C-alpha cells in the first residue's frame, strides 16, 4: 500500500556526503519501502551503506550502476523486492546477490548483461521471480537454477539466446513460467523444467519444434 506522505531524505545536499552527484531516497513510512530510482547513482556500495537495515523493498531502477560487488547486501537481509532495472550492468559476478535470503523478486530488466557467473544467484533461496528481459544474454548456464530452489517465473525475453538445456546438472523442478519472447532459440530441453506450465516463444525466428524434448509423461 502506498502512503500519501513521503519523507524525503537527501543524502547529498551541497557537499554533505561527498558524492559527485545527487542521491535522494524516499521512504514510505512504516512499510520498509525505499525508492531511489532515477538518481544518477553509479556506485552501489556508497549508497547501500546509507540504506536502513530493515528495508524490505528497494527500487534502484534507472541509475548508472555497472557492477554489483559481492557482499553488497550483507546488511539488507530482509529485502523482498529489488528493482535494479535500467542500469548499466554488463555482467553479474559470482555471489553478487549473496545475503538476500528472503528476496522474492529480482528485476534486472533493461541492463546490458551479457554474462552471468554460474554462482551469481547463490543464496537466493526464496526467489520466485527473476526478470532478465532486455539484456544481451547469448548463453545462460542452467546451473544457475541450482541456486534458486523455489523459482517460479524467469523472464529472458529480448535477449539473444540460442538454446536452453541442462544435461545432468541444472534445470528447475519448480519453474512454472518461462518467457523467451524474441530470442534466437533453436532448442530447449523441456525435461529440464518438469513443472513448466507456460512458455512464451514467439519471435524466435530459428525455432524448430522438431528439436523440442517434451516433458516426461507421468506414470
Ligand atoms: C526501520 O527502522 C527505523 C529506525 O531505524 C524505524 O524508524 C522504521 O519505522 C523501521 N521500519 C520498519 C518498516 O520497521
Ligand atoms: C565505490 O566507492 C567506494 C568508496 O566508497 C570505493 O572503494 C569503490 O572502489 C567504488 N566502486 C566503484 C565501482 O567505483
Ligand atoms: C521502480 O521505479 C520505476 C520508475 O522509476 C517503476 O517503473 C518500477 O515499476 C518501480 N519498481 C517497483 C518494484 O516498484
Ligand atoms: C521491472 O522493471 C521494468 C523496467 O524498469 C518495469 O517496467 C517493470 O514494471 C518492473 N517489473 C516489476 C515486477 O518490478
Ligand atoms: C564465478 O565467480 C567465482 C567467485 O564467486 C569465481 O571463483 C569463478 O571463477 C567465476 N566463474 C567464472 C566462469 O567466471
Ligand atoms: C554493453 O556492454 C558491452 C560489453 O559487453 C560494452 O562494450 C557496451 O559499451 C555496453 N553498452 C552500454 C550501453 O553500456
Ligand atoms: C534433457 O534434460 C534431461 C533432464 O536433465 C537430461 O537427462 C537429458 O540428457 C537432456 N537431453 C538433452 C538432449 O540434452
Ligand atoms: C537463424 O535464421 C536466420 C534466417 O531467419 C539465418 O540467417 C540464421 O543463420 C539462423 N541462425 C542460426 C543460428 O541458425
Automatic annotation (TrEMBL):
Pfam families: LRR_1, LRR_8. SMART domains: LRR_TYP. Gene3D superfamilies: Ribonuclease Inhibitor. The keyword Repeat applies. The keyword Repeat applies. Keywords: Glycoprotein, Leucine-rich repeat, Repeat, Signal. Residues 1-18 form the signal peptide. PANTHER family: KEKKON 5, ISOFORM A (PTHR45842:SF12), SYNAPTIC ADHESION-LIKE MOLECULE SALM (PTHR45842). This is Uncharacterized protein. It comes from Champsocephalus gunnari (Mackerel icefish). The lineage of its organism: Eukaryota, Metazoa, Chordata, Craniata, Vertebrata.
Amino acid at each position: 500500500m502506498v502512503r500519501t506522505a513521503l519523507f524525503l531524505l537527501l543524502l547529498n545536499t551541497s557537499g554533505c556526503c561527498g558524492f559527485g552527484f545527487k542521491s535522494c531516497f524516499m521512504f514510505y513510512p512504516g512499510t520498509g519501502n525505499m525508492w531511489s530510482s532515477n538518481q544518477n547513482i553509479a556506485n552501489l556500495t556508497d549508497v547501500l551503506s546509507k540504506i536502513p537495515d530493515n528495508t524490505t523493498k528497494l527500487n534502484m531502477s534507472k541509475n548508472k550502476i555497472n557492477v554489483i560487488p559481492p557482499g553488497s547486501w550483507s546488511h539488507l537481509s530482509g529485502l523482498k523486492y529489488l528493482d535494479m532495472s535500467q542500469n548499466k550492468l554488463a555482467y553479474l559476478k559470482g555471489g553478487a546477490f549473496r545475503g538476500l535470503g528472503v528476496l522474492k523478486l529480482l528485476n534486472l530488466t533493461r541492463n546490458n548483461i551479457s554474462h552471468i557467473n554460474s554462482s551469481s544467484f547463490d543464496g537466493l533461496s526464496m526467489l520466485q521471480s527473476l526478470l532478465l528481459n532486455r539484456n544481451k544474454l547469448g548463453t545462460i548456464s542452467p546451473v544457475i537454477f541450482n541456486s534458486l530452489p523455489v523459482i517460479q517465473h524467469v523472464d529472458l525475453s529480448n535477449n539473444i539466446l540460442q538454446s536452453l538445456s541442462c544435461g545432468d546438472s541444472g534445470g528447475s523442478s519448480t519453474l512454472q513460467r518461462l518467457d523467451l519472447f524474441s530470442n534466437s532459440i533453436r532448442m530447449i530441453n523441456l525435461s529440464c523444467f518438469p513443472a513448466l506450465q507456460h512458455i512464451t516463444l514467439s519471435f524466435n525466428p530459428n525455432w524448430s519444434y522438431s528439436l523440442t524434448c517434451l516433458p516426461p509423461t507421468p506414470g
